[in-house]
Write a structure and sequence with these properties.
globular
Length: 235
């Protein structure tokens, strides 16, 4: 089967991957468990890699195949491994994540953000050439907005970090459709930055959790430096 004859099938599979990608972003908002957020991020990253491979086959681009390979290794495998190695088991076994808004309200706002993303991308798709018009752009922008919303409403450090990573997934999901010949070195640099961010954040969260027994970001704002002892107290 030639590339041209397989293109409609690959485009349909890519649209399916995009729909599942968007559903994972909604599910990430609905879940209240740290482990659930991490699993959904893994599924979302796998769908991002699948979309890159499908677009690589549709447009015969080895750059996109390289992007898919980097994402397949770094996000679903290395990042979860780093988090599990740097964080304590207590962070994962915690049943619920503190959140500013309840789940029904959050899902309603998420739906409005997804609709907003669609209308924002209409002029963008109208300005680009026909081969670059793809469902990846509105879905990717929606994923970015939903990741930002997850970051805004969560109070725990690890789910907030996953929200940042979800934003990156959304940006790349849209970017692979608009910049299909992006040099692989750019993707490698972005992946290494993400790994460093996860490692540093994991170490900090683990240390903070051991010191004060909480990973709530709001609790960190109340920390104060201990006042030095006076000479008579030291004696």
């Amino acid at each position: 089967m030639s590339v041209s004859s397989a293109a409609p099938i690959l485009a349909s599979l890519n649209a399916l991957a995009g729909g599942l990608f968007l559903l994972s972003a909604f599910a990430m908002i609905a879940t209240r468990q740290t482990r659930g957020c991490l699993l959904l991020f893994i599924y979302q990253s796998l769908l991002l890699a699948a979309s890159a491979f499908l677009l690589a086959g549709e447009y015969d681009s080895w750059h996109l195949a390289g992007v898919g390979a980097v994402n397949l290794v770094s996000k679903p495998i290395i990042i979860p491994w780093i988090l599990r190695r740097t964080l304590t088991a207590e962070v994962y076994t915690r049943r619920e994540i503190d959140q500013v808004l309840n789940i029904p309200t959050s899902l309603t706002i998420a739906l409005l953000l997804a609709i907003l993303a669609y209308f924002l991308t209409v002029p963008i798709l109208g300005a680009v050439a026909e081969p670059y018009r793809s469902a990846n752009v509105p879905i990717g922008l929606a994923g970015l907005l939903l990741g930002a919303y997850t970051l805004a409403v969560r109070r725990e450090a690890v789910p907030m970090l996953i929200g940042i990573l979800a934003m990156e997934n959304g940006a790349f999901f849209a970017g692979i459709a608009l910049s299909r010949e992006l040099p692989l070195i750019v993707e490698l640099a972005a992946a290494s930055d993400g790994l460093i961010l996860v490692f540093v954040t994991g170490v900090l969260v683990r240390t903070i959790q051991r010191r004060i027994g909480s990973t709530r970001v709001g609790a960190l704002a109340t920390l104060r430096e201990a006042e030095p002892l006076r000479e008579d107290e030291a004696a």
